[in-house]
Amino acid sequence: MLMIKHIVHINFSITVGGIDTMLVDILNEQCKIARTTLVIINDKIDDTVLKTLNPEVRVIKINRKEGAKDVLKIFKLNMILFKLNPSIIHCHNSNVVNFLVFKKCPIVLTVHDINYSTKSYHKYTHIFAISKAVKRDIEKNGNFPVSVIYNGVNEQLIRRKTEQNNKEEFKLVIVSRLEHVKKGQDLALKAIKNLSSNYKVRLDLIGNGNSLAYLKNLTLELGLNDKVNFLGVKSRNYIHENLKNYDLLIQPSRYEGFGLTIVEAMFAKIPVLASDIDGPSEILNKGEFGFCFKSNNLEDLILKLDAIIFNYTSFYNKSVNKAYLRAKEEFSISSTSKNYINYYKKILK
C-alpha cells in the first residue's frame, strides 16, 4: 500500500477567514495519518487561529511582507521545501506556485471560490474544487484536471439546538465577511426593515470587512439600530458555541462557491435560508435541506422570511433533522481529509 510520508500545505496567510480556518481543520485531521507541515508565506498571521492547530502539525513562517518582491524570502521558502522533501505540496492560493522553484513532487491546488483567475492553474499537477459549482467555473476557463472535494466541518465542536426558542424575538444571524456586493448583507437589512413592523426580529452580523461603514450607515438610514448588531470578528469556537441560540441563519450572497457557514448551521440544527446561487443551492440541494430565495431579489427574500417566521414550527420540523443527516453524510471534516488523502495516493502512483 502506498504510504504518504509528508504533506506540506502552503498558504499566504492564516487569519479567521473561512479558507484559513478550513485549512486548520484539514491539517488537524491529516496529521493523524501522515507527517504534516504548514508553511505560511506572508506575515499576516492570527496566532489565535494557529493555537487551534494540533501540536503534531509543524508550522513554518516565512514572514514575507504582503506584496513585497523579496528574493531572499522566496529563496528561504524554496530552501525549506528542499529540506522538508515533501511527498506532495498542497497550495490554497493559485499564485503560490509562482513562488516555487522546488518542484520535485506533485503540487496540487484547492480552489475555494468562483470567479478566480485561472492564469496559473496549468502549473499544478491537479486541482481540487470545493463544490461542483466551483468545478464548472474552472472548466469554463480551460481544460484543467479538476476533482470535487467538499469542505467539511468538525461536528464534535458544534453545539446543537435541542429545542425551539419560545421567546417573542426571532433571532437571525449572518456569518461572513462584510462585503455586501458579494455577500448581500444589504438585502438582509432591507428585508428586516420590511418585516419589523409585523415581527419582533433581531439580526446579528458576525464578521468584518470593507463594507462595515456602508452597512452601519444603511442600518442607521433604515432605522434599525435597535434591531441589528454588528458583532465583529468572532472565533470559530464562539460561532460553534452560539449558532444554536439563533432561529435562522441567512446567507444572502450574490455569488458564492460553497458556504461553510451553511454546513455549520446544519450541524447546529438551525434552519438555513440562502440565495439560490450554485454553491449554497448545491449544499441545500435546491431547497430540500433548507430554504432558498431568488438571488438578489429583495421581494422574494422578504416573502420567504415572512413565511418562515409565520410558520416557524412547521419549517423547523421540516428541515433541521434531515439537514443534519445530510451534513453528517456529505460534509464532515474526516471525509474531506480522507478524500484528499485518497487523491494524493492516486496522483503519486
TrEMBL record:
Domain of life: Bacteria
One annotated GO molecular function: glycosyltransferase activity
Glycosyltransferase subfamily 4-like N-terminal domain mapped to chain residues: 55-155
UniProt domain Glycosyl transferase family: residue ranges: 160-312
Entries under PANTHER family matching the protein: GLYCOSYLTRANSFERASE
Protein name: Glycosyltransferase
Organism: Polaribacter reichenbachii
The organism's taxonomic lineage, starting at the top: Bacteria, Pseudomonadati, Bacteroidota, Flavobacteriia, Flavobacteriales
